[in-house]
Amino acid sequence: MSLDLLLLLLIILAILLNKSLTPPPRTTSKPCIGCGKLTSLRCSRCHEAYYCSPAHINADWINHKITCRKANRPVLEALLFPVDEPAPRLVKIPYLSKVDTDGLQPTPYHELDVPTMGRLLRGLEMKYVSRLGSHGSQLDHALVVMYGSDFQLDGSAQNECIAGLTGGRMPIPWAGNVLVLRQKGRLYSETWESATMEDVAAMSRFFEEYRDFVPYAF
Ligand SMILES: [Zn+2]
Ligand SMILES: [Zn+2]
Predict the structure, then answer these.
(1) Ligand 2 centroid – CA 5 distance (Å)
(2) Residue range 182-194, pLDDT digits in tens
(3) Residue 158 located in a structural domain
(4) Which residues does UniProt assign to the signal peptide (predicted)?
(5) Do 156 and 85 reside in the same domain of the chain?
(6) 149 and 80 within one domain
(7) What are the pLDDT digits (tens) for 122-167?
(8) C-alpha span between 101 and 82 (Å, rounded)
(9) pLDDT > 90: what percent of the chain?
(10) What's the 79 CA to ligand 2 centre distance in angstroms?
C-alpha cells in the first residue's frame, strides 16, 4: 500500500470516529490537555476537553473517550446506602438504552455506566423488593437492590448507613455500598427508573427482615 493511500485511509478513519475539533461559541482559552499550550479548540463531541490540535486529541483519545460525552448522557438517580456515611442519598448513574436481540424477542435493557458502577460496587448482585415488608402491602413499583456479589467475603467494611437505619437489627451483615433503583413495569425486566427518597421506608423494612437469599416475595 502506498503511503498516500495509507494517509487517506487514516483521515477517513478519523472523520468516521468523529474526533474533530470545534471552536467554542465564546472564545475561552484553556491549556491543551496534551501539551499545556493555551487553546480555544475543544473536543467537538463533549465541548468540555481542550486540545490545541487534532494530533493531541488523537494522542489522548484512549483516556478521553472514557469521559467524553458523559455530560450529555441520560442519567438515572439511584438511592445509595453508602458504606461509610450515616444517611442514604441519591446519586446519578449514566446509562445507555440498548436492545438485546439474542433471545426469542428483542428485549430492551438499560446498560448502567460501568466506570460509575465500578467505583460504587465490586461485582453486581441484585434482589427485587415488591412489598413493604415481607407480608406487607404491594408497592406501586418494584425496587431492585444492587450490591457487591462477594460483599461477605471480599473484606468490604460493614455498611454504616444500613446498620444505623435498622438500629443494628439486620439479619444479613450488609457490607460495601448498596444501590437501589426502581424497576419499570411489574414483570421482571432490566429497564430501570430513578429511585426517590420515598423508597427509604420500604428498604429499611427489607434490611430489617431479609434473612436469606431466597427470592423476596416478588
Ligand atoms: Zn496540545
Ligand atoms: Zn470529548
Answers:
(1) 28
(2) 998 767 778 899 9
(3) yes
(4) 1-22
(5) yes
(6) yes
(7) 889 998 898 888 778 888 889 999 999 899 888 999 999 999 999 9
(8) 35
(9) 44
(10) 28
